[in-house]
């Protein structure tokens, strides 16, 4: 199955490591350090098109991980991941 993250970006559900709420997690020093390091490595893709609400960490064949910034709420992404349909 695949998960639509926004802005025509789709990832395979087997590649998803985690879906995180950007507002809640960004208050943590470790999360800010992780996102800053990912940004420096060039593995952050902003597919939000606006103010991001969540970030999705995925396995990637050429990098250790890749981070997608999405405008969708984490609960919306979770519901899409748990359903058997691809919603746009």
Structure characteristics:
alpha+beta, four-stranded mixed β-sheet, 88 residues, two-stranded antiparallel ribbon
Which parts are unreliable, with pLDDT below 50 for 5 consecutive residues or more? none
**How much β-strand is present in the residues?**
25-35%
Share in helix: 25-40%
In round numbers, the mean pLDDT is 89
What oligomeric state best describes the polypeptide chains here? single chain
Number of strands: 6
Strand order of the largest sheet: 3-5-6-4
The backbone outline, from C-alpha atoms, is: globular
Largest sheet, in brief, is:
4 strands, mixed
Q: How many helices in DSSP terms?
A: 3
Structural class: alpha+beta
- The radius of gyration over CA amounts to 12 Å
Q: Please give the alpha-carbon distance between the first and last residues.
A: 14 Å
Q: What is the H/E order?
A: EEEHHEEEH
Structural description of this entry:
- The chain contains three helices and six strands; from the N terminus they run βββααβββα.
- The chain is of the alpha+beta class.
- A hairpin with a 5-residue loop joins β5 (54-59) and β6 (65-70).
Summarize the structure.
This protein has helices spanning 22-25, 29-41, 74-82, and strands spanning 2-6, 9-12, 16-21, 44-46, 54-59, 65-70.
Give the arrangement of secondary structure elements.
Blueprint: E1 2-6, E2 9-12, E3 16-21, H1 22-25, H2 29-41, E4 44-46, E5 54-59, E6 65-70, H3 74-82
Parallel strand pairs: 4-6
Antiparallel strand pairs: 1-2, 3-5, 5-6
């Amino acid at each position: 199955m695949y998960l639509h993250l926004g802005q025509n970006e789709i990832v395979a559900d087997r590649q998803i490591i985690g879906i995180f709420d950007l507002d809640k997690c960004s208050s943590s020093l470790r999360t800010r350090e992780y996102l800053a390091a990912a940004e420096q490595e060039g593995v952050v893709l902003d597919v939000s098109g606006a103010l991001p609400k969540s970030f999705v960490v995925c396995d990637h064949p050429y990098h250790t991980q890749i981070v997608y910034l999405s405008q969708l709420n984490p609960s919306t992404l979770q519901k899409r991941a748990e359903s058997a349909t691809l919603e746009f």
